[in-house]
Amino acid sequence: MIIPNPRRGEEIDGFGTRSPELLIKLGQMHVRQDDYPEARNYFTEALDIYIDIADRKGEANALFQLARVHRFEDEHNQAIPLYTKALEIYTDIGDRGWRALILWNLAEMHRRRDEYDDAIMLYTEALQIWTDIGNRGGRADALGGLAEVHRLQNEYSEAITLYSEELQIRTEIGDSQGRAESLWGLAEMYRLRKEYSQAITFFSEALEISTGIGTIYRKAWVLEGLADVHRDQDHHSDAIRHYEQAAETFKQIGRTKDAARASKEAARVRRLLKEKEAA
């Protein structure tokens, strides 16, 4: 997709200045193309205008968009102050939906930094707000975040309970992509508990959904998960096949490190298979 020339057909005020709403839209277009530096320029320009005209809601939105760009670039130290400032504004103006969304984003960042207590606190607050205002998709997001924290801390029973509740909501609201992610989480928990039949059932369903809707990133992770299940059971040939498929799928989306990891594991299992055949 080619970004349209922003000088053509843009919304311009009487002084020849682009509207902040247009700048936000242009920034979001660049985000979708992973062009984060250009997106950041547009969001910063919009932020300056919103501050000048004392539009607090617009200011909070621009701060949120800037924070997301930094989060996507793993620049957590830059993102957190921006999220925090936006959170203050949304709290002041009484917008609970946006407050919950920012709490969730902050929780995601603390989770990625292994700051699990902070993440749990923020996910829980977001969950409460989304429950109160009847946002079921948001509630599922918060449950999924909490499940991830418990997964990362090897608290399998707690994670399974949360993933299961998330999965039920995703199914009821017709969120196929979210459903595949919930299924992956459940499958991984059952694999780690050595309940392999359950793990294969959930991984297989997640693979079917991911393939059907074209979510290549999730498909790659599911293939690697299936490979792990077969590896754990010494099903070497099946493990090698799935690792190779995962590596190829990761390559398709430019995830070179993930592709290398899957290829390396395929090679390791292949050596084990040769040793077994030679014995």
From TrEMBL:
Keywords: TPR repeat. TPR repeats lie at residues 20-53, 60-93, 180-213. SUPFAM superfamilies: TPR-like. The keyword Ribonucleoprotein does not apply. The keyword Thylakoid does not apply. It comes from the Eukaryota. PANTHER family: TETRATRICOPEPTIDE REPEAT PROTEIN 24 (PTHR47050), TETRATRICOPEPTIDE REPEAT PROTEIN 24-LIKE (PTHR47050:SF1). This is Uncharacterized protein.
